[in-house]
Write a structure and sequence with these properties.
By secondary structure, the protein is of the alpha+beta class. Helix content is 18%, strand content 38%.
Length: 167
């Protein structure tokens, strides 16, 4: 739409680190519904938002030579730093580790282990987006592209495929 035109229909997405909130705009108005707490309607109006468990901090699950899924576990909940936000000069020898971040999680979430510094990092969608060149320097999610490309290169080698195929 042109700047002078009023947009009356749309979908609003707010992507965070752990989840993405989705809302619909209809006839120029954000959709409103009764708020629910513990599955019970409160009869108090609130924004009608749906939340999905995938976002920039979502971790990747690997099954052999395949990326099986992404999320819902995030780096935040796993209490792991993003390798994306680690300066490349602070990284040593890297290898893949498959982990179970939280009891009850799948045990094939992919992490990067820095053998030199005995430190574990999360591989995330934000890292993949940076490594693939989708994130600009002025974007909030921009990080150390070299660190992200190096980490996803280690994943590519582990899976026996090219970096481009991983991304």
């Amino acid at each position: 739409a042109l700047m002078s035109e009023k947009v009356s229909e749309g979908i609003f997405l707010e992507v965070g680190g752990t989840s993405t909130d989705i809302s619909v705009i209809h006839n120029g108005q954000v959709m409103v519904n009764y708020a629910e707490v513990g599955g019970h309607k409160t009869y108090i109006n609130s924004l009608d938002i749906r939340t999905v468990g995938i976002a920039g901090g979502s971790m990747i699950r690997v099954d052999g030579k395949t990326i099986e899924d992404v999320g819902p576990r995030s780096a935040h909940i796993a209490n792991l730093p993003y390798i994306l936000y680690t300066p490349p000069e602070e990284l040593g020898e890297l290898e893949i580790r498959l982990i179970q971040p939280v009891k009850g999680d799948f045990s094939n979430y992919c992490a990067i282990y820095d053998k030199t510094h005995d430190k574990l990092y999360a591989l995330t969608l934000a890292g993949a987006a940076n490594a693939a060149g989708y994130v600009e320097p002025d974007h909030y999610a921009f990080g150390y592209v070299e660190s992200a490309r190096r980490a996803f290169g280690v994943l590519a080698e582990y899976m026996g495929i090219s970096l481009e195929d991983v991304l």
